[in-house]
Write a structure and sequence with these properties.
Layout (H helix, E strand, L loop, with lengths): L15 E6 L3 H17 L7 E6 L5 H10 L5 E9 L6 H19 L3 E8 L2 H6 L8 H17 L12
Parallel strand pairs: 1-2, 1-3, 3-4
Helix pairs in contact: 1-5, 2-3
This protein binds 5-nitro-6-ribityl-amino-2,4(1H,3H)-pyrimidinedione.
Length: 164
């Protein structure tokens, strides 16, 4: 019979990193808090969650790459905020940031989650960073744990079933 593989939200034993942009810091700090809460909820101890700051969302990917290459992390979450009303190059920042982060994941094999709030208005950004539309940092942490635990299913000695 074919097999079905799934990750879980049991983050015990995982080492995680949060990469946070300082741009729109008043929003991003709520995403950082959300991401920390998400990891805590999944049983990742506080001491196993590192935090790195970068100037803006365009720098998230490089810092994530450096952290991924260190070999110290099972999963990373990138948090940031891009608001259309506040920038003339909104589309460029969003697409380059997203592309960069997904490339790091693909190139390193480590889950790197894009938890950047991209909105038309400040009000929408507030909604997605802990008020009525949830917290993208929290969601990102859960996605990171699910992806890291999924990866473990394929790692020898950590849950992979031998081929018959
Ligand atoms: N960075 C963001 O994270 N959000 C933004 O809304 C934003 N705007 O408005 O331009 C932004 N720009 C900075 C960019 O990410 C880089 O830090 C900067 O261009 C230096 O490389």
């Amino acid at each position: 019979m074919s097999q079905i593989f799934e990750g879980s939200l049991d983050g015990s034993g995982l080492r995680a990193g949060i990469v946070a942009s300082r741009f729109n810091e008043f929003i991003v700090e709520n995403l950082v808090r959300g991401a920390k809460r998400g990891f805590r909820m999944c049983g990742v101890p506080e001491g196993s969650v590192d935090l790195a700051y970068v100037p803006g969302s365009l720098e998230l990917a490089l810092a994530a790459r450096t952290m991924a290459d260190s070999g110290n992390y099972d999963a990373l979450v990138c948090v940031g905020c891009v608001i259309r009303g506040a920038t003339s190059h909104y589309d460029l920042v969003c697409s380059e940031a997203a592309k960069g982060v997904s490339q790091v994941a693909a190139q390193t094999g480590i889950p790197v989650i894009f938890a950047v709030v991209t909105t038309e208005t400040i009000e929408q950004a507030i909604e997605r960073s802990g008020s009525k539309a949830g917290n993208k940092g929290y969601d990102g942490a859960l996605a990171a744990v699910e992806m890291a635990t999924l990866a473990r299913r394929f790692t020898p000695g950590k849950g992979r079933r031998p081929k018959k």
